[in-house]
User: Fold these one by one.
Assistant:
Number 1:
Amino acid sequence: MNARTISGVRGVVFDLSGTVIDYGSRGPVVAFCELFRRHGVHVSSDEARQPMGKHKKDHIQCMLADPAILSRWTQTHGDPPTEALIDQLYQEFIPLQVDVLQNHSELIPGVAQVAADLRRRGIKIATTTGFDSGMIEALARHVRSAGFEPDVMVCPDHVGQGRPAPWMAFHAARQMDIYPMNTLVKVGDTPADVAEAQAAGMWAVSVVRSGNEVGLSAQELDALSPREQALRIADARAKLAACGPHYLIDSAADLLPIIDDITARLVRGERP
């Protein structure tokens, strides 16, 4: 079926960590903390999470622009970081992230079923991410074998720039032969995902419970007291809501009713 014959939503663009894989988006945090540790600078998990969703080189640059991290770096190394240093750190980060992803690539529960249901509806699937293509070669094989089979997986190095620029989303739409952009839905767990959707003219769905802003594995989250759990989720929801997504859900497993609602809105003539 040609995508343009479908009434309503024609494609879904998923983020990866915290949305499709790696409940709590812990893999990138582990890699960033280890990168800085190797250079004698401590960064907390919360600090490493702040720029999440951006291209990983941009992420490193944002971390080093944080006044607290910059102060620690300068105290340790004597000089502030340069652009050449950022390039060096990114090259060091690539194999580190590849290694870490081996242990943080499990599909989030319910994602494979949602993907299968989207397929049955004739809706195409793509991913965009902050990982460059070389980082996700093994990951791509793993998620496909686990039941999540996107039509296209787009990385910043395919288009020359990461989020919040819309180029990855535009590239995905072109590869899937889907237009207009308002028939696409972006699903992600960070403010950068919302910004990408807004820049590209897509509907934005923010994932809360399984994502970066909560930042805990399912087991870690379940281990909290009901009050602690509720507070952590509420804080994450408030932060994402402030970015202006059209919908907030606990995990990508809850997506199908949102797709139905967006389709109804499109039929009524509404746009993102």
Number 2:
Amino acid sequence: MTKDQTASGNPQHMTELERYSRQMRFAGIGPDGQAKIRAAKVLLCGCGALGTVLADTLTRAGVGLLRIVDRDFVDLTNLQRQVLFDERDVEEHLPKAIVAAKKLAQINSQVTLEPHVADIDRRNIRQFAQDVDLILDGTDNFEVRFLINDVSLETGIPWVYAGCVGSHGQTMAIFPNESACLRCVIETPPDPGSTETCDTAGVLAPAIHMVTALQAATALKILAGRKDLVAPQLTIIDVWEGTLRQMNLAKLREKSQCPACVQGRRDWLHGGQGSQSVVLCGRNSVQISPATTSNLSLDELARQWESLGAVTRNPFLLRLRLNDPPYEITVFRDGRAIIQGTDDISIARGLYARFVGA
């Protein structure tokens, strides 16, 4: 038995000291900060471009529990920037949350991983946020971000916003009732077509990595008990232009009449805002969500689809490939469906009604 093992009396403790030694030697974290990170619970909303990098970083950093919620499956277009996936995952049509958890478990078996194949909405976000210390934004749409903002203000859980498109991205931390919230900065989601998306402007992997590096560093400060080191600012970067700007938000909350954090409205959490149809960025796809969740029988639906086209499935989803019209319909057990081959919501809803049900 080594001297260090004798001192700790715990070989597992020695393993942790070795695994996280370089992180613990950093003055900003140290042994006390690492112990707090190991005890922390984090909700990751979305496991795509931003989410996979965040999940990988926090798992390697040794966060105690990582709850991963994502509604989608792995697609070939993801591989350019979503670091936890490969071509075999595309072939198997596996949900992103499931694939991510499997691969993260091989990276760090000390982290408790909770994958959930689900669409985050006002009906389930409180459950997903229960008992966590921090919420991280790995999403690709503003509706979910405003929902996260509402539940953060309602529960007092801090969260870190991030977004990326083209070569630029931005990030900021939100501390409920202390700092400016997302609606202080952006009162309402941009109108459709009014801003760039990854469909219209594309997205560069280096921009993803730059934004998530800042986002993950902020997360580690918070989890290590050093929120005092998190500046009240919105950071905006452009990796193609090589620029970085920081907007000071220190006095924004007290100057604003923010509907959420000043007036106390929870428009997204209480159902006043939001939709059940979402165009998926960069996928030529639309997600349709039923008004109420269900426990769909994939076996029964597969039998109904047998004569309609090519049907494939795995334990998590069922897929129908149509030749005429040329669409793919992927259905999950909760009744959600992703319609590939169109970004027209009305067409997607029509296909859902025809092949899944009203």
